[in-house]
Structures are given as structure tokens and as C-alpha cells.
Amino acid sequence: MSTSRPYHRDDLRSQLLDVAAELLEQDGANALSLREVARRAEVSHNAPYRHFASKDELLAALAASGFERLGASRSTDGGLVESGLAYVRFALGHPALFRLMFSGALTGAGADSLASAAELMRGSFGDDTPGDAVLSSWSFVHGLAALLLDGQVPEELRAGRDDETLARDILTVTATALGAG
To answer: Which residues form a coiled coil (predicted)?
Structure first.
């Protein structure tokens, strides 16, 4: 009975990204290595290099996949409140990935994907919204997510609310003030 692993796997790249995302959340970007990704994916230590030339390329691909996942999580008909809440939920559910996506240290695919975050906010207002309104709403929602992620909201402002309830309340107040629903 042979215990050898198959040389070829269908969609190995996606499997490697899934394993890397788990490792990222467990140990952070500094501890992530292609060798450890290979070990956890149960492939040879050279297998990831067929898909990613370096750790930086793997991190950029992780960031790009994070932006895709964030985009897929957004409500298309909920306006600023539901889009913002999806953004905050994503940040809280995937803190290391969220930080990687916006780290500013990425080049190539990861950095190019930042435009998709702006598009998420543009969808909350409509395609004819001026860029300043899009940037303003994105800055607000991103800041709210970061404050919650880092535990920086004082209890007196929380008023006993959990993260999601607090985010919904704050987004509702802001959307009402902006007329963005």
C-alpha cells in the first residue's frame, strides 16, 4: 500500500491560498512561509513555487483574493448601511487578511486591488457619485472597522452594544446624515 501523495492536484493554487489564509490568521504575515504552506497542504516544499515565485507574491495573491471575498460579501441593495456593515463584518471576521489588504506594503496585484475597495463604496451611492463622496464614505467605514478591530471604542461610547450592533447604529446615523440610506 503506497502512502505517496499525488504529484498533481486540481486547483492547487486555490488550495495553497486557503492554507495560507488560515496560517495568516493564526500566526500573522511574518510567520507565513511557502514551505509551511506546502507542509500544511501536504505537497512537496517546491509545489507552491509553481504558483508563487516568492512569499511576497503569495501575500499579494492573498490580498487580491481578500478583495474578491470582500466584494462578494457586500449587499448590492442595502446602501451605505448594509455595504458598510459587510465591510466591518469582513474586517472583524478576517483581521489578519484585512490588515494585509490595506498594509501599503504590497505591490502588483495586491496594490492594484485597492481600487476595488473604493468600488464597494461607490456601489453604496451610485455610479455618478463624485469621487470625494466615495473616498469620504470609504474612509469612514474603514476607520470604523479599524477602531472596532483594534478594540479602540471606549465602553462609554459602546453603551453595552456588541460590535455589529454598534456598527449598524453608527452607519445608520451617518447614512441618514449623508442621505445615503
So the answer is: none
Residue 73 CA: distances (Å) to CA of 41, 50, 69: 26, 30, 6
Burial string for 41-61 (b: 16+ CB within 10 Å, else e) reads: bebeeebbeebbeebebbbbb
The rounded distance, in Å, linking the Cα atoms of 100 and 97 is 5
How far is it, in rounded angstroms, from Cα 70 to Cα 21? 14
pLDDT score, position 177:
82
Domain boundaries, the chain: 9-52, 66-178
Can you give the pTM of this predicted structure?
0.82
The CATH superfamily of 9-52 is: Homeodomain-like (1.10.10.60)
Residue 146 contacts residue 100 (beta carbons within 8 Å):
no
Question: Do the beta carbons of residue 45 and residue 51 sit within 8 Å?
Answer: no
Contact 57, 106 (CB under 8 A): no
